Structures are given as structure tokens and as C-alpha cells.
Amino acid sequence: WAVYAPYVAAINRLKRERNAVILAHNYQTPDIFHCVADIVGDSLKLARDATRVDAEIIIQCGVHFMAETSKLLNPEKTVLIPDSRAGCSLSDSITGADVRLLKQRYPGVPVVTYVNTSADVKAETDICCTSSNVLQVVESLASDTVLCIPDEYLAMNVARQTNKKILTWKGHCEVHERFGAEELLAYKAAYPGLEIVGHPECHPDVIAVCDFAGSTAGMIDYVKDKRPPRVLLVTECSMASNVAAEVEGVDFIKPCNLCPHMKRITLPKILDSLLTMTDEVTIDPAVADRARLAVERMIALKA
Ligand code: 13P
Ligand code: SF4
């Protein structure tokens, strides 16, 4: 704590002086999540809460597509990300040009794009979704066939819950694709009473052995409400650390996988970001106007 304390104090002071607010994803490390963040949550909550920010400056502690979403929803505000190299394997898997080709191949089929994409990709999209509302978004569309891109596993998981035909793309989350069903079943056998709670970016075979699957916020709520004696969170490692600090009597069993992109964000970089007002997120206004529509259509769906 002695290492963190000076950074925490300096960040919280500078945040007030600059009229800045810190939005942090559930995968941020506990020092960021518990000590400097003003708003925490899953991708959907962060997007919704970004529409209600009063502060002049948003510091996005998460990955680049999250900062872009905040900028789309706050074009007049300064949006900073402490390390603009914080990417995402899903976001990197597809470009706006790829989506244009898909639309040529499947004319008239609505395009649902996961928020884990660049603004260029969102601009080619009818509506965005997150892991917490993908079924609701797919069901809201009149068409019997829906393009749900770029996460192949998220699409396969939602295809099991809807009668619609789901077309997809070969994007994967490099964190969640590493989990396997056999490995999890071995943990279940070794730890009596273990509950397995997974994220829908995992392969459907993994989701099939989970006691519950949902967005990061859904996973946290499940643990807080149900308080299983032992739980394995099939997701990024900081989730278990963050929830463990808030619930007593739950034994968090590893394994977990680290997201190298999320881990680029650190307290020293947040302080530097506030001191130097970098890295600023900018989006071509012509792209932003179209991408914003897709995000706003998602947010307009009732929770
Ligand atoms: P959610 O927080 O929306 O579940 O997303 C998980 C994720 O991988 C974000 O990068
Ligand atoms: Fe992307 Fe997966 Fe990292 Fe989330 S956890 S930012 S989906 S690579």
C-alpha cells in the first residue's frame, strides 16, 4: 500500500482540480478499481454512465474501444486514456472495410456489433451490443437472420438462446478463448461445492459447464447475491481480486487469465495522464456521427 498511497492521493487531488472523472472497467486492478475510480462497471454500465457525466474530462481506465465509446457519447468533452496502446484482440479482428464486404455478401441482414470494436466498425453497424444485452438486441430486430460480429463465441452462445439465424465472424477474446471445458470439470471434481461462473466470450463448450454465464457485472452480482462457498470466475484475473475485497466467506479458486491490454493501465500512467492531458481520444466527426447512432440505439433499449 505504501507504494500505491502517494499515487492515489495525487490522482484524487488532481482529479478534483481538473474537474475529471475516472471510469474504470471491472478488469482494472484493485488499486485503480477501489481507490481512484469514480464509476466502475461492465461495458454497458460504463457506456450508460458516460451519458450522465458532468465533469469536463473523462479518464477511461480500460481499453481503447471503451474510451472511444465515451468520446462518441461526449463529443464536447476531453476523453483521455492513460495508454492508447491498450487494445483488444476482438477489436483488432475486424475493420470497417470488412463490415462493408459482409454487408455486400448479406444484403438486408442487420448488423449487430459488439462494443469491443473500433468506431470505424461501429459506423458500419445498425446497432451495438454488449455481453449483457446481446440477446435483447438480437431479439429487438425484425429480421430472422442477424449478423452478430466480431465475437464468434458470443454469437454461438446467443444462437443457442434465440430462434434467429446468427451469422458471425472469426474474432475471439484472447483472454477467454484460453479456457477449456475439461480443465474446468477437473476443478469441479477437485473442489466439492465449486460453482463455475463464466463470461459469454468463452467457447460454448465452456459455457455448457458453467453454473452461470453473464457479463462481468452479471458475474459479480451472481457472486454477491448467491455467496457460493467456492467460486471459479472464468475470466480476467482482476475480477476475482476486486470482488474478493467486497464479499466475505467466498473462496475464489484460480485459474484466471490476464488481459495484457487492460494491464497497460496503471496508477503512474493515470497520474501522468492527468498531469499531461494525454493520451487524448479523437474520432473523425464523419465516422463518429454514424458510430454514435449504433451506440445510442443500444442504450435506448430499456434495461
Ligand atoms: P463486459 O464487462 O461487458 O462483460 O465485457 C468484458 C470484456 O471483455 C471487456 O473487454
Ligand atoms: Fe479484449 Fe478480451 Fe481484453 Fe476484453 S479481456 S479487452 S475482450 S482481449
Give a quick account of the main beta sheet: strands, pairing sense, barrel closure.
Answer: 4 strands, parallel
Residue fraction in strands: 15-25%
Question: CATH top level of the largest domain?
Answer: Alpha Beta
CATH topology of the largest domain: Rossmann fold
Count of all domains:
3
Ligands, deduplicated: 1,3-dihydroxyacetonephosphate, iron/sulfur cluster
What are the secondary-structure elements, in order, as H or E?
HEHEHEHEHEHEHEHEHEHEHEHEHH
Strand arrangement across the biggest beta sheet:
2-1-3-4
The overall pLDDT average reads 97
The secondary structure category is alpha/beta
Going by CATH, the homologous superfamily of the largest domain would be NadA-like
The radius of gyration is: 19 Å
CATH architecture of the largest domain: 3-Layer(aba) Sandwich
Determine the N-to-C terminus distance: 38 Å
Number of strands: 12
Which bin fits the share of residues in helices? 40-55%
Outline: globular
**Tally of alpha and pi helices:** 14
| Poorly predicted runs | none
Keywords: 4Fe-4S, Cytoplasm, Iron, Iron-sulfur, Metal-binding, Pyridine nucleotide biosynthesis, Transferase
Cofactor: [4Fe-4S] cluster
Binding site for [4Fe-4S] cluster: 88, 173, 259
EC number: 2.5.1.72
